[in-house]
Amino acid sequence: MSGIGYYYTESNDMELILTKREARVYPWHMHMRHWAMGVVRFGNVLLLTADNSRRVHAGDHFLIPPYELHSLCIEPESLLCVLCFDNMDVLANGFPYSGEFLQAEDKVLLEAAISACRENFSLHNAHHSPSIERDSLLCRSVQAIIQLIEEDPGETLHLEQMAEHGGYSLWHFLRGFQKVTGMTPHAFQLLCRLRLLRSMLRTDTASSIAAVSAGFSDQSHMHKVFKRQHGITPKQFKQVSFKLAPL
Predict the structure, then answer these.
(1) Is the pTM of this model over 0.85?
(2) What are the residue ranges spanned by the domains of the chain?
(3) By C-alpha distance, which of 110, 20, 30 is closest to 65?
């Protein structure tokens, strides 16, 4: 599997994703608690958000804050570099890693994008969260459920339980959750479970155990959801995941 590579730090505060000349479509999703900066190394990428669409060309970059719903369409033969990080502090001295996976010209592009993003990045926004009527009781209830899901995505939390937790009817809560996040509680829960699953797949945890621990009904369900979201199987993901070694 050579169409993509994932390079991650031991502390999981940073991850570099390199796509390699394969067309890819990432369905609507969001990144919980971390930013994603993309740099188009070659070709073109279409970035879709809830209220905008942007065609990103070679040499250009984009920055996606935490919890922003988006989709990516990578055109054939294009090369995309995506750097995910918890906050700008980890990039205070640029990209502190090197290796055969990152060519000299790629690192120049990456450093230029980091510099440009730093100019527009406010540390007080590093913990960005969904934003509608932040003072509303419903919004705060949704935020509380989001936190519950993120803290233990493997735990089964039914829609009825979520609504009851906030003191709302099922339908009222569902509409509120979708308005805040842009997706259903179930879809959000799956994204959180995938994030937990990814970290478990990078250890020696057996796939069957990882599937159950992350909240999937079985390996088949895990496999289906993972491939739909990432375009590769969990096994392939393990094969193309590598630890980053600092300079």
Answers:
(1) yes
(2) 4-125, 137-242
(3) 30
